[in-house]
Amino acid sequence: MEHKISNEPDSGFRLLSLATGIVLALLLTVFPQLAMTRWGVADHVAALLLLWSMSAGFVSGVGFVPRHRLPRLLLSSQACLGALVLALLRVASH
Prior knowledge:
With 94 residues, this protein is an all-alpha fold. The chain has one domain (15-92). Helix content is 60%, strand content 0%. It is built from four helices and no strands. The chain is elongated.
């Protein structure tokens, strides 16, 4: 059996990324105070990171892989995890 080498990125379904996107969407809808400081002021950086993680989770979770390098990097499973970790560090520091 011959294995074909391709320059196209893997476009498989990623359950963990999709679950991350769904959970973040639900949490941010039900508990928007997750993206707020302890004083009740919106934390725009935390919101940006959480929404980036959610978006990357949805895009990579359904298996879509953008053709251009920058969107592929920003919407990958690794970006989903990285943005989530940064958001959690940001929220925990407040």
